[in-house]
Write a structure and sequence with these properties.
10-stranded mixed β-sheet, mainly beta, single chain
């Protein structure tokens, strides 16, 4: 234990020093390859240049390297920076004003250099305060104003309390006085509301004053005003209050506080331009107040933008306090994040608490101080450090007013910026005057900072035609600069062809020119092939072959240069493995190695003393059994000359000397007080331990009491009696312990009360805190050790709990969001089973694991079903727990229970109760261990068995994407319910730091399996690119059960990824089993692990930083199966040949038996033998040997009993059909007897592999016979096979080229000969690889103002993969399209947000915009456009709140470069513009968007996203018994969607009885699907149809009548003339004849079709006819799924169930009643979902209202999913909706209506078993404003809206044979808004 602790401490010491030093930066001086002296010095800090003519080393290098290469110190040229304090006045704390010191500095920094500046700041306790109240005077604030008037005295008291030197002012605002913000009728302009003032924009009512009586009296005169729209013009008022310094009265040395009070949202830039008839100019940011304090330019210029307010308030040192009501609190809370310092307070509805809000805000502002460096040049970076040296996040410090605060500014000059040297930047970007100050101060430290770009004087004195340069060049700074035509170092080699001599390129010890690593050029100059890897005059050095330490090149603390490691500052050694500092060798007293050793390479080498030592050579008593036990023998031998060390030589080795004293100190005054019995005299001696008072002393101070405690001699006769009594008592206790658990508990409790046992055992965590980096986490748990000290005899159980995010204050935004208690969440549960762990349980697919998993699920489901809403167990796995004593070999079970969040306490109690009882139903568990967790807290227990001193607590880390950058978990040991131990160290903190990375490295999967016969395991390592560039990661293998050099060869190294590179493979050599191992038959599974570590260049580790590789000793078994499921022959065939194929391990022999399974009149069997390499064998049956076979019949063959190295595949049986047939010709018969029929069999074992984005390689095994060639058919998945392309090849392989990238293809292959084409193979799928995406769709510009635009674009027509990001670059250009300013680049990581809002562009400036897309392969080409916003119209729409798109401020500095604000509460979006400007051609058709422009390819679903389409607004009101829904959304019509993309709502209505009796609403219609699409639901404004031509039928309803029968219904279309009839067309989706049904009676709107094929998809089209002709068609795709006869796939099984389906919807809902108030719901997964399934969303609500809507999240993507729903009400119909959630979003809903009826079958009003509910569902275009009101029975609108429109429902109810239908009257109005908006109002009346 001691040695282990020592090694751990040494390792931790090394780790600490590695972490404490910054990662080494490359030798930038040498890497710059500077050509001149000046370029060398400008490369960065520490660079030096050697001008010596005779110098042979690199002239530009680090100064120490230059000297090491032989340059004289006097000759070396270096540059030095400077820093000077210009003015420094000490802070005077008596002055009641803010101060800083020093006040003026100047400094010049070399590139890459940093300087530290100490600063002091002072804020007075009650310094000067200017308080300006800015209040909303709209009518809704009337009661707020009245309250403020009544608070005059309280307000005066508050101001006096806040400051002794104060002023207070008042201003008011409403909005711009013009339509539509204000009612412009004369009467309303005079008095908008009764007893109110005329409307106005902003007015400064009371200038800042210290006369509180004047302030109060003036305030009483104010009256409220009013306006129209909800958002107010407060931004105008804030800007004027900030810039009108004299008008408001701001004082220079005071704190400026602006209290902004409102209950509404705000207008901001571009709203003025949107809503006014003319375009307003941008706000000029100047003061425009007249003599009365009124804002004069409100109607002449726009509102200011958010960045503008942030900049101006900061410039004038004004701190905003937003006092707002709950209506707008969230908007201002988001706005607060943009200000360096601001506060938001929540007002009561009448502002009665405004004074409390102001006081709390002021105290909050004064409690913190934010330091900023304003006007910082771009070349500099500033950080602020506390006195402890830690960087303050955001520059925030907790300085106390009235005291001097100290901090340090670290100013660093960048060396490179945007891959360019900083010295090449513009002058204003590398020099300037910075103001360093707290944001609340006016006073600041002015720093004149300049990047020093030195030049060399020797460059000015060049020696022309210098002799050293052989007269062919100039000598500049010791280096020859050759004239044209001359080369080499001394210009003595001509560049003519005669100078080419490869011998000059051969270096010492080499035989090849340039060491074989480069090209030999003229004059012996080597140009290396890869300069990043090879270097040197002969390319002889490899930059990856320097010494390594810990697997890292130069320990990652230096650079590999010219074959050796050049270490960074602070490191040395061959591999830079040794720190120069002795920090890791310092002991607890600050000495080096405690004076008992020496510091070598960062580690202490201690002198041998016989005792365990710490890593700093201090006696490690804690590493032994405790400090008392560790010192016992030394104290005993020195004091009494007895004990184990009584020999003098041994005693002299003790590391301390004792002091004999008459009296010992109290226990609380020393480190430890110890007592032991001396075995030689049976006396007890006592001594104390404490640290020495003398700091120079290295030893413990040990004081021993001179007097021992010895037993009295007169009592010796009692010893035999006492021994006898003790033995008797022990015997009784043993019996009691054995047979009575109660006595055992009592005995332990009694022991705990005894004085001798009270300090017996202690339990507690070993550490106080753990600091983890999220990028380095390899698990979602942390094993946190808990230790036990004292006597280890006995068992202790410790309960613990963990809480997530304890670092968040109660007012943290995330803490204020309370979770939904009804939300279904996952509960990970762990138990220890009463079963020993075996190797089979570690393999999830083993039989033991599967059986145990089933037992666990059955028993736990039986226990937890008592929890309301609990679902079945999922994802059960098994493991062991180390450090568990006698139980460490027992199985730990981990599983997941889904239940409502509110059930957590009940689940914990139930788990603990069952664990204590030792069983869950019939499943036996071991007491003392369990864990129950949620997504934010966990609880559990661990058990210390006898003899166990340390146990790990398996703490969940709750890592989530929404975590803060630094979060804390608190783990607490709560109590000890069993045992006598007391809790010592109760708490441990776990801190997780989230790092934002440029790349993410991960293994593709957590485990791989390779066979030894493979010889090598190729492990792929993927890289997700966030910011492209070069990056590195290290890898290393380590032993598990597999051993290095025995099972595999260990590897470690670095992988370097070039820009754009996403995957590399690491090969690991696998070794054959040795003869000894093979004979022993070692059955243990051989595994080794590979870890990723040390990601560089800003990268981090991803999901799988570790993978486990299993080495399979035995090859995987062969799989044998029938080639086809059905075989057909005729009675005239001479032989029946049935092929059997073999896949996988084809290199060994294998056998399988066959026999007839259901033969009627015969019994056949046989054996098939596959030789090595054979993949297909035939079962040949001679019908002549069995007369019954020569007659028509059907029988089955089955495969069975495969050999030990084989298994039987999925086609275990085949059906053989023998039909009547004519006799064949003699030639044909002869060929058949030779082994094959005339028609060739299908080629065997076809395999397809994508070889590129546009190519697929296909190969197969030739069939029996002599094929003349092969035909390969291939087509795109989803296209009809009849349209396939055919390729003719002569060999059994084919290359398919010119394909589409990232596209699914299907293929078939057949062989042909002179008899024709043979049998085709089964369909072979394959997907081509990704390629870079194409150009994005053309750019569209939503012009908001001349300086603000919203640019949007469509997804590329050819995505060629999954789009992951977009990049937008915008550059100001001139008329010649040349840049006139810097280009700005914005990366958008969310591919769904295809738009960008750009603010503060230069007015009337032409910009070029470029957009490109990125997928897994890389970036695609740019789509560009050029536009001048000043020449474009503006948008006619007002945005009251911040839009949900990225905002970029083009004018601001770096701090606004990615100015993002996202809002989930967006009501309107800028995409609502109806007059966009589109670059290039005109993409508007009839005033509408062209579908193919917005959504290339016509695929609506694929391209719609929240950023490119407007979001709908839905407001619901329940009034007077009727339900009203108002919905507004935007409509972009277009071409019809692809059938497989079509949405729709799937409805299944079922009435359920108990005992799962299922009845249907109609005896014929069992299932219905209702669908519609976006196209032509309503006529366009400028309809292209002729007047009188019918519109498209608005929706199709498909109702299944049977497995082959379908009812198709539709809704009559709109038409100005009478409908004459309809036409219904249908055909199979994969091709076939088109069937037509004419409906001549216009009153009929349905047809019944009887001749459909089961399980086949059909395309239906319906259109209407009038006198003017046929209208457009409505399309739909539908499939009737049912079970079919295996002998005839077109014949459905009689009585089998059937249902309708579409590819992307869940299967039909199946309900099973479990009890009167609970049921089980199940469904099948979608056949072809749009993306990978992540889970399902299930909603449940009462059909006719009442009760809450319940929502369930169900995870998993299994073939069938089940959900148990409880707490239902009998005889009440419920509506269930199931919706699949995929990686692309949410799919269509499957809906079912269910009632659990009374068992007595009593009457249920209209909901009895005769009732039928039919839902008419139709989709409306997204730009339709609809108001629908339905009285009486109404179905709630669905909560999910698909991208293609809104779904509305009406209801028809039939009851007891009586039908009541709601008659609807439709009134349609058409109007024009902005030339492009179509509005329809639909009114439904009973």
């Amino acid at each position: 234990m001691g040695r282990w602790t020592l090694r751990l401490s040494v390792g931790l010491g090394l780790l600490l020093i590695l972490v404490s030093y910054t990662r080494a930066e490359a030798n930038y001086c040498y890497a710059s390859r500077s050509k001149t002296c000046s370029e060398c010095l400008q490369a960065g800090k520490g660079c030096a240049y050697c001008p010596d003519e005779t110098f042979n080393g690199p002239r530009c290098d680090l100064h120490e390297n230059i000297l090491a290469h032989g340059c004289s110190a006097a000759a070396a040229i270096t540059a030095k920076s400077r820093m000077r304090i210009e003015r420094e006045e000490q802070i005077n704390v008596r002055m009641a004003q803010s101060q800083v010191s020093p006040q003026q500095m100047s400094m010049s920094l070399l590139p890459g250099e940093e300087k530290m500046v100490d600063m002091e700041v002072f804020a007075p306790t009650k310094g000067p305060l200017d308080l300006y109240i800015l209040m909303d005077f709209s009518n809704s604030m009337e009661d707020d104003l009245d309250n403020l008037k009544r608070m005059g005295q309280e307000l005066a008291s508050l101001v006096k309390k806040l400051s002794d030197d104060y002023t207070i002012g008042f201003g008011k605002f409403v909005d711009k006085v013009i339509e539509p913000q204000t009612d412009m009728r004369p009467a309303k302009l005079d008095q908008p509301w009764p007893n109110s003032d005329p409307p106005f924009s902003f007015e400064n009512v009371i200038k800042l004053t210290n006369d509180l009586n004047f302030f109060t009296s003036e305030l009483q005169k104010e009256r409220i005003s009013g306006n129209l729209d909800a958002p107010e013009g407060g931004f105008d008022a804030i800007l004027q209050a900030a810039v009108c310094t004299d008008n408001i009265g701001w004082r220079e040395q005071s704190t400026h506080l602006l209290v902004f009070s409102t209950e509404s949202a705000f207008h901001y830039e571009a709203d003025g331009a949107n809503v006014l008839s003319g375009i307003l100019p941008r706000n000029d940011e100047k003061c425009h107040l007249d003599g009365e304090g009124k804002y004069t330019e409100a109607t002449k210029q726009d509102y200011p933008s958010i960045p503008t307010l942030v900049r101006l308030l900061g410039k004038h040192n004004i701190i905003p306090v937003f006092a707002v009501t709950n209506h707008s609190f969230t908007y201002y809370k988001k706005l607060q994040t943009y200000f360096p310092i601001a506060e938001v307070g929540l007002l009561q509805e009448d502002s009665s608490n405004i004074l409390q809000v102001m006081e709390m805000a002021f105290e909050s502002i004064r409690s913190k101080m934010s330091i900023r460096a304003e006007d910082r040049p771009k070349a500099f970076e500033a950080e602020f450090l506390s006195t402890s040296g830690k960087v303050a996040k955001h520059g925030d410090f907790a300085f106390r007013p009235g005291a001097i605060g100290k901090f340090t500014m670290r100013l660093k000059a960048h060396r490179m910026l945007d891959d360019s040297p900083v010295c090449k930047m513009d002058a204003d970007e590398k020099s300037g005057l910075m103001r360093v100050k707290p944001t609340t101060f006016n006073a600041a430290m002015n720093v004149q900072a300049t990047v020093l770009c030195p030049t060399c004087d020797c460059e000015k004195t060049a020696i022309a035609n210098a002799p050293r340069c052989h007269g062919n060049g100039d000598l500049v700074c010791g280096k020859c600069q050759c004239h044209d035509g001359w080369l080499s170092t001394f210009c003595n080699c001509s560049a003519s062809a005669s100078a080419l001599d490869t011998r000059l390129c051969i270096g010492p010890g080499s035989t090849e020119p340039c060491s074989g690593r480069g090209d030999c050029r003229e004059c012996g100059r080597c140009v290396c092939y890869n300069p990043d890897q090879f270097e040197g005059p002969y390319c002889q050095y490899d930059r990856t072959q320097c010494p390594r330490f810990g697997g890292f090149l130069c320990n990652d603390r230096g650079s590999c240069i010219m074959g050796r490691c050049v270490c960074s500052d602070g490191w040395e050694g061959n591999a830079c493995e040794c720190p120069k500092s002795n920090q890791t060798c310092l002991d607890s007293k600050g000495g080096v190695c405690n004076g008992r050793g020496k510091c070598v390479c960062g580690l202490c080498e201690c002198q041998s003393s016989g005792l365990e030592m710490t890593s700093t050579c201090e006696p490690n008593f804690q590493a032994q059994l405790g400090v008392c036990e560790a010192t016992r023998t030394c104290a005993q031998c020195q004091a009494w000359k007895t004990g184990e060390r009584k020999d003098k030589k041994e005693c002299d080795k003790c590391p301390f000397r004792i002091i004999m004293v008459d009296e010992l100190k109290e226990a609380d005054k020393v480190m430890e007080k110890c007592s032991y019995r001396d075995e030689e005299d049976d006396c007890t001696y006592h001594y104390t331990l404490e640290t020495p008072k003398n700091p120079d002393s290295k030893d413990l101070e040990v004081q021993v009491l001179k007097k021992k405690d010895c037993p009295a001699a007169s009592l010796l006769w009692l010893l035999p009696l006492l021994l006898f009594l003790l033995l008797l008592l022990a015997l009784l206790l043993l019996c009691c312990w054995k047979y009575c658990k109660c006595c055992k508990t009592c005995w332990q409790s009694c022991l705990a009360l005894l004085p001798c046992c009270n300090k017996g055992r202690m339990v507690g965590f070993k550490e106080d805190e753990y600091l983890l980096r999220q990028s380095l986490l390899t698990s979602d748990h942390l094993d946190t050790p808990m230790a036990r000290t004292g006597p280890l005899k006995g068992t202790d159980v410790v309960r613990w709990k963990v809480t997530d995010n304890v670092h968040r204050s109660p007012n943290h935004p995330q803490a204020l969001v309370k979770p939904n208690p009804k939300e279904t969440i996952q509960y990970p549960i762990s138990l220890r089973l009463n079963r020993r762990f075996t190797e089979n349980l570690s393999r999830p697919d083993s039989r033991d694991a599967e059986q145990l998993r089933k037992d666990v699920a059955d028993n736990l489901n039986d226990v937890y079903k008592q929890i309301p809403g609990a679902q079945k167990m999922q994802k059960t796995s098994f493991r062991t727990q180390r450090n568990a004593g006698k139980r460490q070999d027992y199985t730990i079970m981990d599983t997941i229970l889904s239940a409502p969040r509110s059930s957590y306490p009940d689940i914990v109690k139930m788990t603990e109760k069952n664990v204590q009882s030792g069983r869950f139903s019939d499943l036996k568990v071991l007491p003392g261990y369990y864990t129950v967790a949620t997504d934010r807290e966990a609880a559990g227990a661990i058990e210390f068995q006898e003899g166990v001193e340390s146990v790990d607590v398996h703490v969940p880390l709750f890592v989530k994407d929404e975590d803060d950058d630094k979060k804390q978990l608190l783990v607490e040991a709560t109590d000890v319910p069993l045992g006598i131990a007391q809790i010592g160290k109760r708490l441990v903190n776990i801190t997780i730091i989230k790092e934002h990375a440029s790349s993410v490295f991960s293994f593709l999967q957590p485990a791989y399996t390779y066979s030894r016969q493979d010889g090598v395991a190729n492990i792929p390592i993927s890289r997700e690119i966030i910011e492209d560039g070069r990056t590195q990661v290290s890898y290393r293998t380590r032993d598990l059960t597999a051993k290095d050099k025995k099972d595999y060869v260990t590897v470690d190294g670095d992988l370097t990824y070039a820009p754009g590179e996403t995957q590399k493979t690491v090969p690991v050599r696998l070794l054959e089993l040795g003869e000894k191992d093979a004979l022993l038959g070692d059955k243990q599974v051989k595994q080794f692990a590979m870890d990723l570590s040390n990601p560089r260049q800003g990268a981090k580790l991803g999901r799988y930083p570790r993978t486990t590789v299993t080495i399979a000793d035995l090859p995987e078994p062969s799989v044998m199966m029938f080639k086809k499921g059905t075989q057909s022959f005729t009675t005239s065939d001479p032989n029946y040949t049935i092929p059997v194929v073999r896949t996988r391990n084809q290199d060994s022999p294998a056998t399988v038996k066959w026999r007839t399974k259901k033969g009627q009149r015969f019994d056949l069997s046989g054996l098939l033998k596959f030789n090595p390499g054979e993949t297909e064998k035939n079962i040949v049956i001679d019908p002549r040997s069995h007369p019954a076979l020569s007659q028509p019949d059907s029988f089955q063959l089955e495969l069975l009993e495969p050999s030990s190295n084989a298994t039987v595949g999925e086609r275990k049986t085949t059906v053989v059909n023998v039909v009547e047939g004519a006799p064949r010709s003699p030639e044909m018969a002869q060929m058949q007897q030779k082994g094959f029929s005339g028609r060739l069999h299908a080629p065997g074992n076809p395999k397809a592999k994508a070889t590129g984005p546009k190519s697929i390689h296909l190969n197969w095994d030739p069939p029996a016979g002599n094929p003349m060639g092969y035909k390969v058919k291939y087509w795109i998945y989803g296209d009809p096979e009849k349209d396939a392309q055919v390729l003719d090849v002569k060999t059994p392989q084919a290359e398919l080229t010119n394909l589409y990238p990232y596209c699914d293809y299907e293929m078939r292959v057949c062989a042909y000969n002179s008899f024709g084409d043979g049998t085709e193979t089964d369909m072979i799928p394959c997907q081509t690889l990704e390629d870079v995406p194409g150009e994005p769709g053309r750019l569209a510009f939503n012009v908001i103002s001349p300086t603000v635009t919203q640019v949007s674009w469509a997804e590329p027509a050819e995505t060629n993969g999954n789009i992951t990001a977009y990049e937008v670059i915008y550059t100001p250009i001139d008329d010649d399209l040349k840049p006139v300013g810097a280009a700005k680049k914005v990366k958008i990581d969310n591919p769904k947000k295809r738009m960008l809002l750009i603010e503060n562009l230069v007015n009337a400036q032409t910009y070029q915009y470029k957009v490109r897309a990125k997928n897994g392969v890389g970036w695609g080409p740019y789509r560009d456009a050029t536009i001048n916003l000043a020449s474009q119209p503006a948008r006619p729409l007002s945005i009251p709140i911040i839009p949900d798109v990225p905002i970029v401020d083009a004018e601001a500095g770096d701090e606004y470069d990615s100015y993002l604000m996202y809002s989930n509460e967006v009501l309107k979006s800028p995409a609502g513009s109806k007059t966009p400007s589109v670059s290039g051609d005109d993409y508007m058709m009839n005033g509408k968007w062209d579908q193919n422009f917005l959504f290339p390819g016509g695929s609506v679903t694929r391209n719609l996203s929240t950023s490119s389409t407007p979001m709908s607004t839905m407001n619901s009101h329940y009034m007077g018994g009727s339900f009203t829904t108002e919905t507004t959304s935007n409509y972009m019509p277009g071409s019809p969607r692809r059938p497989d993309m079509m949405g729709g709502m799937h409805t299944t209505d079922v009435i359920m009885r108990k005992r799962s009796e299922r009845g249907y609403a109609d005896e014929h219609i069992r299932d219905s699907i209702v669908m519609g699409d976006m196209s032509s639901n309503f006529p366009d404004l400028d309809a292209r149809l002729s007047p009188g031509v019918p519109d498209t039928p608005s929706r199709l309803v498909f109702s299944a009548l049977g497995p082959t029968a379908l009812k198709v219904s539709w809704q009559a279309p709109l038409c100005q003339k009478d409908i004459l009839g309809y036409c219904v067309l249908y055909q199979p989706l994969n091709g076939g004849d088109v069937n037509r049904i004419n409906v001549t009676n216009p009153a009929d709107n349905s047809v019944i079709i009887q001749d459909l094929l089961p399980n086949h998809s059909y395309l239906f089209k319906v259109k209407a006819q009038s006198q003017e002709g046929w209208g457009p068609e409505r399309e739909g795709v539908i499939t009737i799924e049912s079970a079919v006869d295996p002998k005839s796939p077109y014949s459905p099984m009689p009585g089998s169930p059937f249902t309708l389906s579409t590819p992307s919807a869940p299967g039909p809902l199946v309900f099973t009643a479990l009890s009167p108030d609970s049921l089980q719901l199940s469904w099948e997964k979608p056949r072809k979902p749009n993306g990978d399934i992540l889970g399902y969303v299930v909603t449940c609500e009462q059909l006719h209202g009442g009760g809450d809507t319940r929502s369930f999240q169900v995870s998993g993507d299994s073939a069938e999913t089940r959900l148990t729903v409880s707490n239902l009400t009998e005889n009440v119909p419920y509506k269930f909706k199931v919706q699949a959630q995929t990686t692309q979003g949410y799919g269509p809903e499957r809906e079912g209506i269910i009632t659990i009826e009374s068992q007595d079958g009593g009457a249920l009003s209209q909901y009895n078993n005769q009732s039928m509910t039919r839902r008419d569902v139709f989709n409306m275009p997204s730009d339709i404003s609809t108001t629908s009101s339905v009285s009486r029975t109404m179905i709630n609108d669905p909560s999910y809206f698909s991208a293609d429109g809104m779904m509305m429902t009406t209801q028809h109810t039939e009851s007891s044979g009586m039908m009541t239908r709601q008659i609807t009257k439709e009134v349609v109005q058409r109007s024009v808004m902005g030339g492009t908006t179509v509005t329809k109002n639909m009114f439904y009346e009973s």
